[in-house]
Write a structure and sequence with these properties.
The complex is a heterotetramer of chains A (294), B (280), C (381) and D (562).
Chain A lengths: L3 H5 L15 H4 L2 H24 L31 H37 L1 H16 L2 H12 L3 H28 L2 H8 L4 H37 L11 H7 L9 H27 L6
Helix pairs in contact in A: 3-4, 3-11, 4-5, 4-7, 4-9, 5-7, 6-7, 7-9, 8-9, 9-10, 9-11, 10-11
Chain C lengths: L37 H8 L2 H27 L4 H5 L8 H10 L6 H13 L13 H36 L4 H15 L2 H15 L22 H7 L6 H35 L3 H7 L4 H29 L3 H6 L5 H11 L2 H29 L7
Chain D lengths: L5 E2 L5 E2 L7 H26 L12 E2 L3 E6 L14 H10 L4 E3 L6 E3 L2 E6 L5 E6 L13 H12 L13 H5 L4 E8 L2 E6 L6 H4 L10 H7 L13 E7 L3 E6 L12 E6 L3 H9 L5 E5 L1 H8 L5 E2 L6 E7 L9 H10 L2 H8 L4 E2 L25 H10 L6 E7 L4 H14 L3 E7 L1 H8 L7 E6 L6 H9 L4 H7 L8 H14 L5 H18 L3 E7 L2 E4 L2 E2 L3 H4 L10 E3 L1
Parallel strand pairs in D: 4-13, 4-14, 18-19, 18-20
Antiparallel strand pairs in D: 1-2, 3-24, 5-6, 7-8, 8-10, 9-10, 11-12, 12-13, 14-22, 15-22, 16-20, 16-21, 17-21, 23-24
Classes of the chains: A mainly alpha (294), B alpha/beta (280), C mainly alpha (381), D alpha+beta (562).
Chain lengths: 294, 280, 381, 562
């Protein structure tokens, strides 16, 4: 039942992520939050520490291929070139996490700052920036992907650029709409009266209030980039064939989905687990910064 | 103006507790209260004394999984605390009405003002859309808004704070309710507008014999409008009685301390006001 | 005596629509000089911001075309090498002759100018491979993409909004967690794993739904408008509709599952935000039931963010769900673009990129304008 | 959810069920159950499909629609322009050629031409036409149609050609036809530049499909959308990016076909094609990926045909690049390739190691004595590299990013590392790949394949080794080797005379000499294996699968099974 207490919760959080009130006690609330943070930590440990324990070389090929799981020395069996799947899954985690983290961070930084600029300055700056974002959004991702591969070569670096190109506009639109909302509020006018310069107001006043929503968008984008990496591999961008990330492994195992489903399914499950955990962790963070509902 | 009047609402030994993740909060700790026909009963106290919660509880708006309400609120021969939600819903708007503190957020920004008034007439007075719309314009005129026909089509963000509170009052008194709970109706307004709005509200209420519970922390407002007053602190009523008696000759030292905290126009300029000592 | 708060400026939350937010505070409301009712609403909306916003659509599409033209010609490899890949012992003169025949020997600037001039006259060039005109190829591919986009958005919208509201109404309970978990899984699973599972479960294992193409091969269908539903009515062919829906089911389902999650999240947050407003209490004070409050009051306020996300998604889908079309061999604009990129079929590539850009920015503009229309606060200025 | 995913004995994923809190259980349940259910279910459903009839007893049924999955269709079927393999299969079915090839026995058989004879000096070929052949519009075939069809591609500036026409007939007939004349309404004479006994075989090529003279002059460039031919099926409708629909032509000179309709449907995705075949929504295809063939073979409802392996897979070396200019380096690379692992893992066993260098076991001129040209000797290769001072040299290998290319490229990467080179693999989309492969300045090593559309050794050895062909000038750049000009001339001589003798034994000796000389003196072509296109059917039979293995369609007898 809707209770008064919920209705009385302040509409706009008074504290941004800078505030000290964001203490750990408020973060880990409820079983789902524990599971989410636990999975993220587990995956990071798996990826960073795992390879040390597994002796098999992820790139060592063997003429006898596609061994089923559990055979001697190959806990998860071998792939279509006789390489140890467990070693590849562990080795595949790092590039995948790097791509997701870097692309999400880059999109968030570039997109949010552009959005702040557009929302804050308004006028033709706003129109130009927003339409530039439209151009980026309307630009077919497949063309970007193939251009990257053909001209600059594949690899994680270009994957990060391609994903950033596709995700930054989302942040820009969000940040711009929020900033336009904030600019019309009294506290911005008040700080103008105090003689603060535009940049001071943007960074010290507007950004903290915008950052809560941006944080939520960041975790959703983390999930999107997780899915995008296999889509880009489908379009041919993930070219580090021999030292792949999870996204490429999902794509490479696709043709054997009927005979050896594990080759595609295991990386796909890990990607999904990562994405779901990232999202729930994001929700938990947002609630902790007192922007969310009880 | 004083003298016994039949009481419309009798509140007996009312307790309201909220369960929060930092332990239970006892907002109201056993109060008794009577509202008489056509009379203004002021409930005064500092913020956090539980006066607003009392008002909301009378309206039945403090129901929910985390709140427990004990005691009795008798109105129309039934105890509102025990009444089920559908009965309370039938009363709200028709016999029980409320005006809130912050006019800026009390109206739905997406609907024109006229439609929001007409809605309560349609729901509670069973009037057709067309009739309700016409009555809404007439109500806007009665609450003192110029060009009511044009104003009815306009949206809340196009009105000043004072104007919006007039609309909220129009909504509340549309069906001439028996009881009006006004929760600090003018605190958010500036002084000049405050007097006009209060005169309007109390005038309309008295005209329709409505019993008014006026929740406020402003003793000046109490002096000017209230017949009865109850002084409330941390969930309990310390003193009750006719307004002139309580203000003129306060029995309880907390009431005296409250009165002493008011700056005087004449009298020494530089004197510090004595702070009101609140218990731990 | 009265604890006067810092007097808040008179409510002048004047509009900050996409047009320049005028920093000078708007004057206090003056009842006499502004018309009210339907005429004023129409007058304000057709006013300045609309024209400005719609004018930006062709500009963006034009910029996209220029960039696509440059990128396409930047890619290594050209159509002539592909056309002659299988011709053994082709002499350089023959290659040069074919290159000039296709007009690729001219400088980039000339080719761009002639392409743009052609566009102004409505010619989008021809495919080097089939000689068919680009506009006719697009006329075939567009209806398929629009049908898929509409079906996917309806499915995703319905699924997303309903689950979003339920999650908001049951906030904090296990239902809320389940829905949010499901939504997150929806848009986190690598999309073509969803497609594969859909193909396996419904196509291979249960055999209920077709997994290929737009219509069964045993049916002859001569498009008049290209929209199967419309043609079925025009040509009096009700037998087309059943198979058409069957073929549309799996691709639309895959797209809906992977995008409904977003709508669920946005709806839930928007609903919770709207429900926490004070005016909801006023509505309750009027004695309205909870569901009446949700429908009449809360939904309208929550509609702005929902409209934005659904609009963005529809725009994206109109761009041709490239990969879903490839997996289900669904002949939309997306697969046309991918084939054209692989074959360096420049005119087809540029034509489809232009159409995708136009549709995408067009839908975005419509979303911005409908937000303007829905929220009265944004209308002025 | 613990990260250690176990598998049971049959390879199915086991997710440990440590379910604790209610919220956690609900979410993990979805993931856990999903994983546990999906693994075995996927393998199970690939074993016996829910639908599909037993294909063992091939009882045939009259009529019906056969759906044949192809890679793509551009919506234009014109023998004078190459668009997609799928489009060319349709051209093969709609039209007939003067001759046709039996891809199982390598023999060239009569088709529209009932017989042919060479003149004494071998410079003229006279063909007699059948007199009972009808076009799809009922008109009779005459020599005028043949002459107009040939001149349309051979004579420059013919108005009836579409803009993108690359006129493949000139390449297919080695630019050797000087004139085409009609002796009488049913006799045609071709005049050649140099004698070429392989010409009748070359006339079975897709670009030599006979069109109707009336339609050429009436419709010209638009002919691709309303193609009229003499084949078993006539063109009913065309939809670019979707399908090509053909209907039976009862008056076909080879007898009325069994099917009512034959539809070539575009199916771009490999796993969707496999699922389509399992669920019988696709009746046949020759575009199945090698790795999918393994799971299709395990499915009782599906038939995976055993067909001749004529497709050559090779690594072409660009001799103009400094790192590959040294013959010893090129020979070392040839010795370094682990062909057995590539055949087993990249092609899932559907390939043979090259015992006869550029000619497979099924081909005329196959000589197993050339097996030593493709031996695998890492230590010898390493020594040669060291001797040439190329240890640690950087070399790039380009390949396409679809089908079997990435797997083969990754094996080659390890093989090159093993002999001391530093390889970088570039997997490119088709457009970028052909752009860089046919540009002698833009690649070092290139992984490529050659599919001969006519089962004659000249289509493989003649093409790959001759210095005048497009591979010689652009792919390997051997034409630029000044110091080897005499060797190249000697090889070209062998290849030319091999086409001027009809005695198979003599042809084999000439090809063996040419290949051994090339391998020992030039070695710009490291043969990897001979593979096939995977031909699969479900609910269909008599598909002429031997020809489909080389992407040629002979579907006149095709029928659905009961």
């Amino acid at each position: 039942m809707t209770s008064l207490v919920a209705a009385a919760a302040p509409r706009r959080g008074t504290t941004g992520w800078l505030s000290a009130r964001w203490s750990a006690r408020r973060v880990l609330r409820g079983p789902v939050a524990w599971l989410a943070w636990g999975t993220l930590v587990a995956l990071s440990v798996l990826v960073l520490v795992g390879p040390l324990f597994v002796t098999a070389d992820p790139q060592a090929q063997d003429s006898v291929a596609l061994l089923p799981a559990g055979t001697a020395g190959h806990l998860l069996g071998t792939d279509d070139l006789g390489r140890d799947v467990l070693a590849r899954v562990l080795a595949g985690g790092r590039p995948f996490l790097v791509v997701c983290a870097a692309a999400t961070a880059a999109s968030a930084l570039i997109g949010t700052s552009l959005g702040l600029l557009a929302g804050f300055r308004g006028g033709w700056v706003d129109a130009v920036v927003m339409r530039a974002m439209d151009v980026l959004l309307a630009f077919p991702l497949v063309l970007v992907a193939i251009l990257m591969v053909a001209v600059l070569g594949g690899g994680t670096g270009n994957m990060i650029v391609a994903i950033t190109i596709s995700q930054a506009p989302t942040f820009a639109r969000l940040a711009r709409n929020l900033t336009v909302g904030e600019v019309s509020r009294d506290y911005v006018r008040a700080s103008r009266c105090l003689g603060h310069g535009s940049w001071h107001i943007a960074l010290r006043e507007v950004l903290p209030n915008v950052s809560g929503q941006v944080l939520v968008q960041t975790t959703s984008t983390l999930a999107v980039t997780a899915g995008l990496s296999s889509a880009l591999s489908y379009l041919g961008l993930g070219q580090d064939a021999s030292a792949p990330d999870w996204g490429y492994m999902v794509r490479a195992g696709q043709e054997l989905i009927f005979s050896n489903p594990g080759l595609s399914l295991i990386p796909a499950l890990l990607i999904t687990a990562f994405a779901v955990a990232a999202n729930f962790a994001g929700d938990d963070l947002r609630d902790a910064t007192d922007l969310g509902r009880l | 103006m004083a003298g016994p009047r039949p009481s419309v609402v009798e509140v007996r030994d009312l307790h309201v507790d909220f369960a929060t993740d930092r332990g239970p909060v006892h907002a109201v700790r056993g109060i008794d209260l009577d509202l008489a026909v056509g009379q203004v009963h002021a409930l005064v106290g500092e913020s956090g004394s539980g006066k607003s919660v009392t008002g909301l509880t009378i309206m039945g708006l403090t129901r929910g999984p985390r709140t427990t309400v004990r005691g009795a609120i008798r109105y129309g021969g039934r105890d509102l605390v025990q009444a089920d939600e559908s009965w309370m819903r039938s009363l709200r708007g028709r016999e029980l009405a409320m005006v809130f503190q912050d006019p800026m957020t009390s109206l739905n920004p997406m609907h024109p003002v006229g439609r929001q008034i007409a809605e309560t007439l349609q729901v509670n007075a069973g009037r057709s859309r067309r009739v309700a719309r016409a009555d809404a314009v007439e109500l806007l005129d009665r609450v003192g808004i110029r060009e009511p026909a044009k104003a009815a089509a306009r949206y809340p963000h196009e009105f000043s704070g004072g104007m919006r509170q007039r609309v909220v009052i129009a909504i509340a008194l549309a069906c001439e309710p028996a009881v009006l709970v006004a929760d600090e109706p003018t605190t958010a307004l500036d002084v000049t507008v405050q007097a006009q709005v209060l005169d309007l509200m109390v005038g309309l209420a008295r005209a329709s014999d409505t019993a008014v519970l006026l929740v406020t922390h402003d003793l000046g407002v109490v002096a000017r409008y209230a017949e009865q007053v109850s002084v409330m602190r941390s969930g309990q009523i310390l003193e009750r009685g006719p307004a002139q008696a309580v203000l003129g000759d306060p029995q309880h030292d907390y009431t005296r301390a409250l009165l002493a905290a008011i700056p005087r126009l004449h009298g020494p300029r530089r004197r510090r006001l004595s702070p009101v000592a609140t218990p731990g | 005596m009265v604890t006067a708060r810092l007097p808040g400026t008179v409510a002048d939350a004047h509009s900050t629509a996409t047009a320049a937010p005028d920093p000078a505070p708007a004057p206090v409301w003056r009842p006499d000089d502004e018309p009210s009712g339907w005429r004023s609403w129409a007058g304000r909306v057709v006013h300045h911001p609309v024209v400005l916003r719609l004018a930006q659509v062709p500009v963006v599409a034009f910029v996209v075309t220029i960039i696509v033209f440059l990128v396409a010609h930047l890619l290594p490899g050209d159509p002539v090498t592909q056309l002659t890949a299988n011709v053994n012992g082709i002499t350089p003169e023959e290659v040069a002759q074919l290159t000039s025949q296709l007009g690729l020997d001219a400088g980039l600037a000339d080719q761009l100018r002639s392409y743009l001039v052609g566009l102004l006259h409505g010619q989008m060039g021809i495919s080097f491979y089939s000689g068919a005109s680009v506009s006719s190829m697009l006329a075939d591919a567009l209806p398929a993409t629009v049908e898929l986009a509409v079906a996917a958005v309806l499915l995703a919208g319905l699924l997303g909004i309903v689950t979003g509201i339920v999650a908001a109404r049951t906030q904090g309970t296990w239902v809320d967690h389940l829905i949010r978990g499901g939504a997150t899984i929806g848009f986190s699973v690598p999309w073509f794993v969803v497609a594969l599972v859909a193909i396996l479960v419904f196509g291979v294992w249960l055999g209920w739904l077709p997994i290929l193409g737009r219509l069964p091969t045993s049916l002859t269908y001569e498009p008049t408008t290209g929209f199967v539903l419309v043609d079925a009515v025009l040509q009096g062919r009700p037998d087309l509709i059943g198979p058409w829906l069957e073929h549309l089911a799996l691709p639309a389902l895959t797209l809906a599952v992977t995008s409904a999650g977003f709508i669920t999240r946005v709806t839930r947050t928007a609903f919770l935000d709207a429900q926490a407003q004070q005016w909801v209490r006023t509505a309750r004070m009027k004695g309205l039931t909870e569901s009446a409050i949700s429908v009449k009051h809360v939904l309208r306020n929550a509609s702005v963010p929902i409209l934005t996300i659904v609009g963005l998604m529809f725009g994206g889908l109109l761009g041709g769900a490239v990969v879903t079309e490839a997996v289900f061999s669904y002949p939309g604009v997306g697969s046309l673009l991918v084939e054209a990129v692989t074959r360096r079929d420049y005119f087809v590539l540029q034509g489809s990129a232009l159409v995708i850009a136009l549709m995408f920015t067009g839908v975005n503009a419509l979303v911005d304008l409908s937000v303007l229309a829905v929220d009265p606060r944004l209308r002025r200025g | 959810m613990s990260t250690q995913i176990q598998r049971d004995e049959s390879g199915n994923i086991q997710v440990p069920g440590t379910m604790t809190r209610r919220g956690f259980m609900v979410n993990a349940g979805i993931l856990g159950l999903g994983a546990m259910a999906l693994g075995p279910f996927l393998t199970a459903c690939s074993r016996e499909a829910a639908t599909g009839t037993g294909a063992t007893a091939a009882a045939l049924r009259k009529g019906g629609t056969l759906t044949f999955a192809i890679d793509g269709t551009n919506g234009s079927l014109d023998p004078a322009a190459y668009t997609t393999l799928g489009d060319w299969l349709a051209v093969d079915t709609i039209c007939s050629g003067l001759t046709t090839a039996d891809f199982a026995t390598n023999e060239i058989q009569p088709s529209l031409a009932s017989g042919w004879t060479f003149s004494a000096d071998g410079l003229q070929l006279t063909l007699q036409l059948r007199e009972d052949v009808k076009f799809h519009d009922g008109t009779l075939l005459t020599s005028a149609d043949v002459v107009r069809t040939f001149n349309r591609q051979l004579v420059d500036g013919d108005a009836s050609l579409p803009t993108g026409a690359s006129r493949p007939l000139r390449g297919a007939t080695a630019r050797n036809i000087k004139a085409v004349e009609a002796v009488d309404p049913h006799t045609v004479r071709l005049t050649l530049g140099v004698p070429d006994l392989v010409l009748p075989g070359r006339l079975s090529h897709i670009s030599a499909r006979i069109l109707q003279a009336a339609q050429i002059d009436a419709v010209g460039a638009q002919l691709g959308t309303t193609l009229i031919g003499t084949g078993p099926y006539k063109l009913a409708s065309l939809a670019a990016q979707q399908s090509i629909t053909l209907e039976a032509f009862p008056d076909y000179f080879g007898g009325a076909p069994a099917l009512d309709r034959l539809v070539f449907q575009q199916v771009a995705d490999a796993s969707t094609l496999t699922a389509g075949l399992m669920s019988a929504q696709v009746n046949a295809s020759s575009f199945v990926s090698h790795s999918s063939a393994v799971s299709l073979k395990a499915n009782k409802a599906v038939t995976v045909y055993d067909v001749p392996r004529r497709v050559n897979v090779f690594v072409m070396m660009n001799v103009t690049r400094p790192v590959l200019a040294d013959l010893r380096v090129r020979k070392a690379i040839n010795l370094a390739i682990d062909r057995s692992q590539i055949c087993a893992n990249a092609f899932a066993g559907f390939a043979d190691e090259p015992k006869g260098y550029a000619l497979g076991a099924v081909s005329v001129g196959y000589d197993p004595s050339l097996a030593d040209l493709s031996s695998y000797d890492v230590s010898a290769a390493k020594a040669l590299i060291a001797e040439a001072g190329a240890t640690g040299a950087k070399v790039s290998l380009i390949a396409q990013n679809n089908n079997w290319y990435p797997r083969a490229a990754q094996i080659l990467e390890e093989n090159l590392k093993a002999i001391g080179l530093v390889p970088t693999i570039e997997l490119l989309d088709a457009g970028s790949f052909s752009g860089r492969f046919f540009d002698v300045g833009a690649h070092d090593l290139a992984l490529w394949e050659r599919n001969g559309y006519v089962p004659d050794p000249d289509e493989q050895v003649g093409n790959l080794l001759s210095s005048t062909g497009s591979y010689g000038s652009k792919g390997s750049g051997v034409a630029t080797l000044k110091d080897k000009a005499d060797v190249l001339a000697q090889i070209d001589g062998y290849l030319r005379s091999a086409c001027q003798t009809s005695d198979d034994a003599a042809r084999r000796d000439l090809y063996t000499k040419a290949q051994r000389l090339y391998a020992e003196q030039i070695m710009a072509l490291a043969m990897v294996c001979q593979t096939q296109n995977i031909v699969v059917s479900n609910g269909a039979s008599r598909l002429g699968e031997a020809s489909l293995a080389s992407q040629r369609a002979q579907l006149a007898q095709a029928a659905l099974t009961a």
